[in-house]
């Protein structure tokens, strides 16, 4: 047996290298032809019997719930809904600078002393009060873990643009020329108590003139004053007593079911 193996090994070593390569090439060619033949005769599609998945139809009630939970135009409404509690602090917001990309920003806020300062998000506005976030028309304050909103000062009305050709002197005449002062407000604004459960819960504003001073102060007819300088009101005296020359007054009114802060800066 050993002798025959040695003879076969000696015979292989004596074969030319070219014959060995030709034999290997022939073997590989036979294998590839067999594979090609098997691919042709196999009754299977190119994608191995693939079938498109069936369409999953959502019920009308599920579609309504899905679309009602997302508003593409007001995507931040849900996140800001929990911060609509208007602050009762004697603070006035004069300006904001929001950075939506980073979530930061700063705001110009005046305290009870009337001095305006710039605060960045995360800084302390008053003792125990942190500037939490800045929006385009208000800021969010964190007081003891409770989020409160402070809106821009609305006591200064927007400038009225006269039509072309109108006389500029005509726009400056009338009761608005004198600005806001304590005596004019006392004569131009009336208060009617709102009773709920046998007690006064606010004062309904009404104009004593043509309503110009009411609008100039930032109010609207029918507004209900519920607090002045952070304190609830129970009579017209609580409001009128604050109308002093040079006073800075923070008024909170109910308008259309929501609370709106208004800051009054009276002339000396």
From TrEMBL:
Keywords: Cell inner membrane, Cell membrane, Membrane, Protein transport, Transmembrane, Transmembrane helix, Transport. One of its GO terms (biological process) is protein transport. SUPFAM superfamilies: PDZ domain-like. Coiled coil: none annotated. The chain crosses the membrane at residues 20-41. It is found in: Cell inner membrane. GO terms for cellular component: plasma membrane. Pfam families: PDZ_6 (PF17820), T2SSC (PF11356). InterPro entries: PDZ (IPR001478), PDZ_6 (IPR041489), PDZ_sf (IPR036034), T2SS_GspC_N (IPR024961). Residues 187-257 form the PDZ domain. Its main location: membrane. This is PDZ domain-containing protein. It comes from Sphingorhabdus wooponensis.
